[in-house]
């Protein structure tokens, strides 16, 4: 006897319910707690059930919070730009100029940084860019400088370099996958119609690779804006970002209300910027389609 649609739906619900419950407990519940705390009043060592928007007013009007949010956005955008600009040529080279039999080897080499802990890679750049690090020691040895450079560490540039190196593989792989899906006959057809290689790249290759570029951009931008370890180690605590401020408010100052408001504000900023980027990308694709 054939099963009815209702019985099939019940069977499907039973199948997905464990995963759904797991997701609700580990994702939705903490997020709902943060949202709730952000509109409550902090009572020093306890939360007072008095709903208020003063936490958001403090976050959005406070000069310190504004400066930290601006720094976080600046660092994240710079890291995303540098990472994608570096990742695209590498992915393009592997996809179009490496023999099919060697592509797996190249992808294997690209993923080698994943073999080590993220924390170890951050410490590596701390050693390289430190006051007595590899760069300063090398320049002193060859006589280019007389004393160690202080500006190569504890600055936004050092944060960008460290984060770009850490997230480069995450950007290369989705762009490579998008490039691999491009039908090579389309590129040949463009050149047969008299288009130059640059024009063909701009009108055919780049638009078709945009899904991978979008994925790479979001994969890099979203986690870097909330990075905690790198600003603390590479920045020496002198260049805090949003995650560091949340940690200070939540744990050191025990101000969960304002800390939650900062977290929610960061999520809103990321969501708005992501939507703007997707809208601009759609306009770009429409322009190239014409």
Treating each run of at least 4 consecutive H or I residues as one helix, how many helices?
12
CATH class bucket = Mainly Alpha
Which structural class do the helices and strands define? Answer: mainly alpha
Give the full name of the CATH homologous superfamily.
Answer: MetI-like
The biggest beta sheet reads: 2 strands, antiparallel
Radius of gyration based on Cα positions: 24 Å
Helical fraction equals over 70%
Rough outline: globular
Distance between the termini: 54 Å
What is the β-strand count? 2
Q: Helix-strand pattern, N to C?
A: HEEHHHHHHHHHHH
Structural domains: how many = 1
- Poorly predicted residue ranges: none
Strand order, main sheet: write it out.
1-2
What fraction of the residues are assigned to beta strands by DSSP?
Answer: under 5%
Oligomerization: single chain
Tell me, rounded to a whole number, the average pLDDT.
Answer: 84
CATH topology: MetI-like fold
Examine the secondary-structure arrangement and name the CATH architecture: Orthogonal Bundle
Give a concise summary.
The chain has 290 residues and is mainly α.
Task: Tell me about this structure.
This protein has 290 residues and is mainly alpha-helical. The protein has a single domain, classed as MetI-like (MetI-like fold, Orthogonal Bundle). Helices cover 77% and strands 1% of the residues. It has helices at 5-38, 54-61, 63-97, 100-110, 118-129, 134-142, 156-180, 184-192, 197-225, 229-233, 242-252, 256-289, and strands spanning 41-42, 47-48. Strands 1-2 form a two-stranded antiparallel ribbon.
């Amino acid at each position: 006897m054939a099963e009815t649609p209702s019985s099939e739906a019940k069977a499907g619900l039973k199948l997905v319910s464990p995963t759904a419950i797991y997701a609700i407990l580990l994702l939705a519940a903490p997020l709902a707690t943060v949202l709730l705390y952000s509109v409550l009043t902090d009572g020093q060592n306890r939360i007072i059930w008095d709903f208020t928007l003063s936490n958001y007013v403090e976050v959005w009007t406070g000069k310190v919070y504004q400066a930290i949010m601006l720094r976080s956005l600046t660092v994240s955008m710079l890291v995303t730009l540098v990472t994608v600009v570096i990742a695209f040529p590498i992915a393009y080279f592997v996809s179009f100029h490496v023999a099919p039999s060697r592509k797996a080897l190249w992808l294997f080499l690209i993923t080698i940084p994943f073999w080590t802990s993220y924390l170890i890679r951050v410490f590596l750049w701390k050693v390289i860019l430190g006051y007595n690090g590899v760069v300063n020691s090398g320049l002193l040895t060859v006589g280019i400088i007389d004393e160690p450079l202080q500006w190569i560490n504890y600055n936004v540039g050092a944060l960008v370099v460290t984060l770009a190196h850490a997230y480069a593989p995450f950007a290369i792989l989705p762009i490579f996958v998008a490039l691999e899906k491009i039908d090579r006959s389309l590129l040949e057809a463009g050149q047969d119609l008299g288009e130059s290689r640059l024009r063909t790249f701009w009108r055919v290759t780049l638009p078709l690779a945009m899904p991978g570029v979008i994925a790479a951009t979001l994969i890099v931008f979203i986690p870097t804006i909330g990075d905690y370890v790198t600003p603390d180690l590479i920045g020496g605590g002198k260049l805090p970002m949003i995650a560091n401020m949340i940690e200070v408010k939540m744990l050191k100052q025990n101000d969960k209300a304002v800390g939650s408001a900062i977290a929610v504000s960061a999520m809103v900023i990321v969501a708005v910027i992501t939507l703007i980027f997707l809208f601009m990308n759609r306009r770009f694709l429409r322009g190239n389609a014409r």
